[in-house]
Amino acid sequence: MLISVLVGAAVTAVASFSALAQPAGAGNGNEARARARAHFERARALFAEQQYERAGEEYLRAADLVDRPMLLFNAAQAFRLSGHSERALALYRQYLQRDPDGRGADAAGKWVSELSAAIEAQNQAEAEARARQREADERARKEAEAKVEAERQREAERRRMEAETRRQEAEQSQRRGLLSADWTGAAHIALDYKARGAAVQLAGGLGVGEYVQVRAAGLVGPTLGAYLGGVVYPAAFGPDGAWKPLVGAGLPLFFSDGVRYGVRVCTGLEWQMSRRIHLSADVGVEHVFNPEWNRQATALVPMLGIRAQP
What we know:
This protein is α+β, with helices and mostly antiparallel strands. Helix content is 50%, strand content 28%.
């Protein structure tokens, strides 16, 4: 059907070209007509080879040179077949404006209706596709944002839990440091002090933090007594911090002809032999404020000890 219309249009165009006659002296018109005829022939050949877009361009070049509306119709047909619906629709409308009662008017009117509907449907479909794409993009964006927010919240929760764990561990460590009790047994060797010789100090200690220990002890030996004092560990050194210097002070009480009270200061070193066992050695000076009449008030008192932690 379309080929027959086009062929009829081409025959008409050829006839029109061959029937044209110009009076003598119309050289410019003859030249334009000859050029239009050449474009027309090339368009017809290209159309026969199904090179529709190039054929349409040649029909338009011919239409620019001569006033033949049917050339616009032929160009519209060629562009329609090449898939350029909007360009074909514009040429059909242009043809109908130029020659509303021409041979191709009925076909042009039909194609205007069909192409207008098709283009409108295509535009609508493209608009709907764009809308769907925008919705999909928006969903993807929101999902990505939700994932990022969820990951941020998980990271924040993880950090919060880590901080809470560290806080609880610190509290537990502090409680252990403040409330952990350890027991110490020590050989207390008194040199030249009332000639008592060695005495054993049986002590219980209460840790106050990591660096301080308070001790209460009983003295068992030639002279009975009691001791209340404390030890500070200012630092640690050696492998795994096993060695700790110590500084201590306390109040010894001796029960001999009444109560004899004094003060003791010492310095020394403690070695952590295992997780639970600590060995220590220190040298201290004791001064008794109310010594017996035949005893020195001040004496050098070394001490060796072993401390066990539960």
